[in-house]
Structures are given as structure tokens and as C-alpha cells.
Design goal:
The protein is mainly alpha-helical. It has 2 domains: 1-192, Growth Hormone, Chain: A; 200-403, Up-down Bundle (Growth Hormone, Chain: A). The protein contains 14 helices and no strands. Helix 3 packs across helix 4 and helix 7 (135-163) runs antiparallel to helix 11. The longest helix has 70 residues, at 333-402. The protein is globular and about 70 Å long.
């Protein structure tokens, strides 16, 4: 009887929106690892131009998330998703047009904007349709769609680039985009009732673009994403330095497996025990993974660090998103979702650029030590920004159950 009363998580709409999120993230990573080389070989772009062509996508995504978070309720959540997906696919088609590097840069910016639009919509919709009592668990499963794409996308992109042309990669991406659009047509998003008291404030106030309740946890997300960006961007360079290039190709695979295996349990624990029950251990595990990475001298150590970083940062990512959504009224979930992803994208996007100035002075090994310590220090910041409040809320909940 208790199982029958448990709200259903794996509904048709949940599966659809998770699938759509997988498709757009897969396209993002497919192009992320191939567009720079293509720009150099086909457009004669310089190395710095290739870096800008690769990275400007994230700037577009940040702009898209910042703007659409405010207008998503006015446009409609499903409409926002469909519009974003259609233009995301059209922007993918525009890569076939050769008008030089400036046009390619402009298209990458637009492509990123449309992903920010579609990604914010999908995150907002899933937060709305997940039962309240299974919010963290549901967001954990939803986030796994992006985790899978993170592991599969670069693998497919690099494999295709070695055996076929960039045009074939584009055709594959366009096909995925069309599938995403067609799939999204079948999603049902319940109408959100917004009273005049809770309606979004008009004007160009900061609260019209950023959800204040989500800012504290967004700061934590920004810092840990900044630390993780060093792994995402420089693990191959580090692997060359320590002569473990062949092993490094499996790093993100074990990372993804660690996330996939652990998230179902961490999501349920967070719903039943509270965020602190997950967040404090993940800080320690993530920091341990970074410190272990700094000492890697063999394949076992390198892959073990990947597992620890997956258990740490991988679960921290979904947990902070769940916190942001739980702290926010339903009519501002779009802003909360965009606030979270702005922080995540900013950390992952600008981290490699800033760390690029530090690496020549520290080297990779020392950098990972510094960032591991940074993660531990962020634990203290988390306590003051959210952990303390979370503990008080859970104590009140225990007292109310005992009363």
C-alpha cells in the first residue's frame, strides 16, 4: 500500500524532457570537441580564434539563460522549449554555410543562446512535473541525461572526426535536433496558475533576471564548477605530462559510471534526510579526488580520482540544482533554474580561461592541489550560505513529526 501511494516519477513527460535534454547536451559536446579543429582546417582560423569559436557558445548560453529566465512564464514553458529547440536546430544547419570566421563566430553565439533557452525551459519543466516529495531524486535522474551526454558526446565526436568529415558530424547533429523537436511536441506541461500577487515584477530589476533565493547556492555552484573546469579542460594536457594519455580516454567514462550508479541513492537520501546529508560528504569526496589526481602516477590512481570526482562533483551538481528549485516559489522556478545554470556555465566556461594564467606558474599537479583545498574551503562557505539554514529546517521538521 505504501508503494502504491508513492508519487510516480517516471512519467511519459519526465522521460520526454530528459530525452530532449540528452539530445541538446549531446550536440553541444559533439561540436565542442570538433569545431575548433574544423575552424583551423577549413577556415584557416588561428589558434586563438579557434578557442574563441569554441568558447563563445558558452557566452551565448549564458545570455540565453539570463534573458529567458525572466520571460519563460510569459512565453509559456513548453513554447519556450519548442522555440529554443527549433532555432537550436536551425543554427546547427547554418554551420553548412561558409561566410568566414566572423559568421561562424556569430552563429556559435546564436547557437549557444538557443541552447540556453531550450536548456532553461527543460530544467524548469522537469522541476515543475517532478512530485515534491521526490524532487531531489527526480532532478538527480534528470541530470543524468546530461551526464551521459558529457561522456558519450566527446567520444562520438572524436571518433567520427577520425573516420569521416565534419559535414557528416553536422548531419548527425541536425538529425538529433529534429528528433528533439518532434519528441518535445508530445510533452504535456500543466498550466501554472500565477496570481497578481505572485506575478513577476516588470522592469529591469535584478530580481527580474536572477532568483534571489537561489543566489547563495548558485555561488557554491560557481566555485565548485570553476574547480571542476580544470579537470574538464586540462586532463588531457596533464595526462600527456604524466604519460597516461591512453588511460585518460577512460577518465570521463568512469566519471559517468560513478555518477550513474550513485545518483539514484543520493537523490532519495536528499529527499528524506536533507541536503546537508549529501552535500558535506560530496565536498570531501570531490576534494579527495582532486588531491588524488594531483599525485597520479599510474592508471589506477588516475581512474580512481575520476570515480571520486564523479561521486563528488557529479552529485553536488544535481544536489545544488535541487536546492535552488526547492527554495523557490513555483512561479519563479524558471528564474531559479536559469540562475543555477548561469552559475554552472560561468564556472565551467570562464574557469579554463582564468586557470590558463595560473598553470604556467604552478603546473598541473600543484594546480589540482590548490583547487582541492579550494573545494574544502568552499565547504565552510556552504555552511554559512545554506547548510546552517538547512540544518535548522530539518530539526524543525523532526520536531513537527514527533509532536
Amino acid at each position: 500500500m505504501q508503494q502504491a501511494a508513492k508519487p510516480k516519477l517516471w512519467t511519459k513527460d519526465f522521460i520526454i524532457v530528459s530525452s530532449v535534454n540528452f539530445f541538446i547536451t549531446l550536440i553541444f559536446y559533439l561540436l565542442m570537441v570538433t569545431i575548433g579543429v574544423y575552424a583551423v582546417e577549413e577556415y584557416g582560423a588561428t589558434t586563438s580564434q579557434a578557442g574563441l569559436i569554441t568558447g563563445i557558445f558558452i557566452i551565448g548560453s549564458l545570455i540565453g539563460r539570463l534573458l529567458i529566465g525572466r520571460f519563460i512564464n510569459a512565453i509559456g514553458r513548453k513554447n519556450t522549449l519548442l522555440i529554443g529547440l527549433v532555432f537550436f536546430t536551425l543554427a546547427t544547419l547554418l554551420y553548412f554555410v561558409d561566410f568566414g570566421v566572423p559568421f561562424l563566430l556569430a552563429n556559435r553565439l546564436i547557437h549557444g543562446f538557443t541552447m540556453g533557452m531550450a536548456g532553461t525551459a527543460s530544467g524548469t519543466i522537469v522541476a515543475q512535473i517532478i512530485p515534491i516529495t521526490r524532487k531531489a531524486e527526480g532532478i538527480g535522474y534528470f541530470s543524468m541525461s546530461a551526464t551521459l551526454a558529457t561522456a558519450i558526446g566527446p567520444f562520438i565526436g572524436l571518433s567520427l572526426s577520425q573516420h569521416t568529415s565534419f559535414q557528416v558530424i553536422l548531419i548527425f547533429c541536425v538529425a538529433l535536433g529534429i528528433i528533439g523537436v518532434l519528441t518535445a511536441l508530445f510533452i504535456y506541461v500543466p498550466k501554472l496558475e500565477i496570481s497578481t500577487k505572485t506575478a513577476e515584477v516588470k522592469g529591469f530589476k535584478l530580481s527580474s533576471f536572477i532568483e534571489p533565493n537561489a543566489v547563495p547556492v548558485a555561488i557554491i555552484t560557481l566555485l565548485v564548477a570553476f574547480c571542476y573546469s580544470s579537470v574538464l579542460s586540462y586532463i588531457n594536457f596533464y595526462a600527456i605530462e604524466i604519460d597516461l594519455v591512453s588511460t585518460a580516454s577512460f577518465f570521463f567514462l568512469v566519471y559517468a559510471v560513478a555518477v550513474l550508479v550513485s545518483r539514484p541513492f543520493t537523490g532519495r537520501l536528499m529527499d528524506s534526510k536533507g541536503a546537508n546529508y549529501i552535500m558535506y560528504p560530496t565536498f570531501i569526496i570531490f576534494a579527495g579526488g582532486m588531491l588524488l589526481l594531483s599525485t597520479a602516477t599510474n592508471s589506477f590512481t588516475l581512474l580512481l580520482s575520476g570515480i571520486l570526482i564523479g561521486l563528488g562533483f557529479g552529485n553536488m551538481q544535481s544536489s545544488t540544482q535541487a536546492i535552488a528549485v526547492k527554495l523557490t516559489p513555483p512561479h519563479r522556478m524558471g528564474l531559479a533554474t536559469s540562475t543555477f545554470f548561469i552559475a554552472l556555465d560561468a564556472g565551467l566556461g570562464f574557469g579554463p580561461y582564468l586557470l590558463g594564467y595560473i598553470i604556467p606558474k604552478t603546473g598541473y599537479s600543484t594546480l589540482y592541489v590548490i583547487l582541492g583545498i579550494t573545494v574544502l574551503v568552499t565547504t565552510v562557505l556552504y555552511y554559512f550560505l545554506h547548510g546552517k539554514k538547512e540544518h535548522a529546517a530539518m530539526e524543525e521538521l523532526k520536531k513537527s513529526k514527533l509532536a
